[in-house]
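task queued by scheduler; priority normal; single chain, no ligands, no partner chains; default sampling; output format set to structure tokens
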Amino acid sequence: MSQEEVVGEETVVPKGAKGEQVAAFRKAPASSRTRSVAFMGLTIALIAVSAWVVVPLGPIPFTLQMFAITFAICVLTPKEATAAIFGYELLGAVGVPVFSGMRGGIGVLAGPTGGFLWGYLIGVPLAALFLKAVGSRRNLVTDAMAGVIFTAVAYACGWLQYMFVGQVDPLTAFLTSCAPFIVLDLAKIVAAAVCARAVRRVVG
């Protein structure tokens, strides 16, 4: 046979696939890919639900998103975590009410608090890659550090956009958009890291 195909219990490799493609198909059987897609879908739903839990604290609402996203970073692979957050943002951008306060649309991304959402797109891959680099040395502290990396990036982006869109000075922007949430978000990061380790022990 000029094209390699694996049948039976193994994954069927499409004709034309060679080298690394064949290896990738063998390493990722259909059941594994289905499980990965299911995890990403559940993660998107978890992030959306966590955004609907809103406690008003001035212009920036308190939500459980930092917990949910840190949890996802610690449980999923880097590719899965990145795909999940991009999927979540895409749903919100097209108008599905998955953002805080059950809002959706480009207007939320372009508004004063939209910088946090943009920060998620940068912070999640960075934090996930950090955990990948840590590898077998992962523990509760490194998982929490990944959450801090993600949160710091989200804060930076949120602070910048709030400053420019809200037309306020840097200090006012920080005191309004970041400072009230630091302690609460650190607590959510630790809680997410603890829960993630328990879940990883169960699901493998």
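post-processing summary
- The CA atoms of residues 113 and 162 lie 6 Å apart.
- The chain is about 70% helix and 0% strand.
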